[in-house]
Specification:
8 helices; alpha/beta; 13 strands; nucleotidyltransferase activity
Length: 248
Amino acid sequence: MARVDQAVFLAAGRGVRLGPRGREIPKGFLEVGGTSLIERAVGLLNAAGIRDVTIVTGHLHAHYDALARRLPGVRTVHNPDFAESGSARSLAVGLAATEGPLLLLEADAIWEKAALTAVLRKTYPSLLLASGPTGGGDEVWIWAQSGTPRPVLDFMSKRCATRRGPPFGELVGITRIGAAFRAALLATEDRFFTSDPKGDYEDWLIAAATRVPLPLRRIDDLVWAEIDDEAMYARARATVWPRLAARE
């Protein structure tokens, strides 16, 4: 099984729901515990042996460009269509700029080290990480179907009533993409963007998973948070960070 030694961050979002703060800085530059989300994540990746980091930029990209000049092993690639497209287009830009297995991450989240440890284990060439319910708001729910020896991705949605039965877990935004699943993404790219030119990357993962199963791993008590608006930012600082710092 190929080792994962590179990571791609999706960081092109406009941060509209953050209001004035989102017009000043990209979400990846929000600080929790005295460090920006992106710098903390890159540091954890480096500590795990991943020193090749690509950041797909869009909104206020100069912040990430400056970071790349300062941090060894970090580079940026720009999604020129970020304002008119969804996160799937940023994933396409990231795939075009890299080769081989990779770790795919969202730049607007904070998570404990255990998240990386779980995904980087060599048990599966591809793996999507889930958590138990967090109550963080704006959750993306994951539904599973049976797989051997681990459940595999069936569907994802922000609407919990989309599927019968309870969801498998909550999307964390860290996905290991091996060679076979990467090939499935590329094989479905044209059809996906023809049917959904403004689609999100989660929907592209679902489409690719119909060709190559994407195993799931759930950590019920994982400490993490995504930040999309001021309420989620306040929760990350006041509630999530103290729990995370206590563990690490």
